[in-house]
Predict the structure.
Amino acid sequence: MSVSDNRRKMKKAITVMLLLILAISSAGFEVSAAYDDRSDYREHDKRFRNSLIVDGIDVSSYQDDDIDWKGAKASGIDFAVMRISVTLNRSGSLESDKLFREHFNNARRAGMMCGVYVFSQAVNAEEGAREAEFAISRLQKLGIGPEDLMLPVYMDYEFFNKGGSRLSGLSEEDAVAAAKAFCKTVRSYGYDAGIYANSYFFSNYLNNGRDLPENTDFWIAQYSSSINSECSYTKWQYSSSAKVDTDSGSADRVDINYWYIDKETEESAINISGNTSADYTGDPVLPEFGIHYKGKHLVKGVDYIVGGIRNIDIGSESYAYIKGIGDYEGYALVPVNIENDIYEKINLPAKVITGTNLEDTGYLVYSDTGRTTIGIIPEGTTVGELLSDIDISSEDYYTGVIDSQGNRLAEREKVSFSNMIGVFSCEDDTLIGTVDIETETEKGINHLRHK
């Protein structure tokens, strides 16, 4: 994966110590590399050639509670998975991770997309379900619902100590049953479920995930320069020797991961509208979107949630990651343009567009979102055609179509995703309000769907 000039300039909040395993020798050696250069040492599976590769870390009470999460986000870490509970090796007792709440809250506050994991020692289906119930109970007590997690609740399935582990003698049948029970229990509460294991465990105890439900997310661990696995993983933990800064000035060792997000285009019945430019602030930024399905306005936090990828610096390859929840599933990736001094939308009350001939055109007006949106505009519609159809005008104002910078578009230009209708004063041509435009769904990175 190539590294942009922008990412080379990122703060060195994280330094990765990489252990390279050479094919021609059994000896290994450590190479200290700047965080943004680490991808040079990893060979991604060819099935990810059209994927967005996102960087993340996972932590537990082994790490300090004063991780510099803001610095980690600024240096390119966009997701974090925190341990919420652990099953003790010998007794099988369940315990909460004492630093989970601090890690989770601080990571979210810094703009991280978050998930959680359970360190499992389940030897059968009953114990797998019990571990899931324990973790979900704690999530609920902390007020963390499915709308707060961009990533799943993972079962971290591994030998605590191969010789003395309570998993010693575990059969593939029992391992698969435990994993199924864990995932089924997690999903029964509305959360997404996933399995973490190393490549050996996946191969020898979980049949590489083939016997688990299709909607199970697989997170694989293998500390080498590439992976040869039949598991259909979407996340790869490739090192346990990353170092993240803490507020006290020290460095804490953490695991580090890749997340592969498919960028294949797809047609979706769910429409997305909004200004995809965001004003640079030095902190993570995200646009607001209007999302509709068959005329129904979808509600953020109920039907979908939004996270950010590299959404801090000007000129970076930034994305909004829109994830379906509740009655919706899948995701959309929307490119975000971070700039200085972008045009700020001026909300226009719905009453301005009453009395137009929208019913004749078949367009819809959404005004229940705190702002007004006109949709669904057929693909290929020109500015002139749109303005003729909606006929928003009066003695006091007239209309035009503007881009995210506030520039007027010519009548022959085609209306696109991030355009808006601008309402101008007849007296002095000043912009007095805007109306969002929702275009007919085009093929894009939109895999959102109704369940």
In short: The helical segments are 5-8, 69-74, 100-109, 125-141, 172-188, 199-205, 358-361, 383-390.
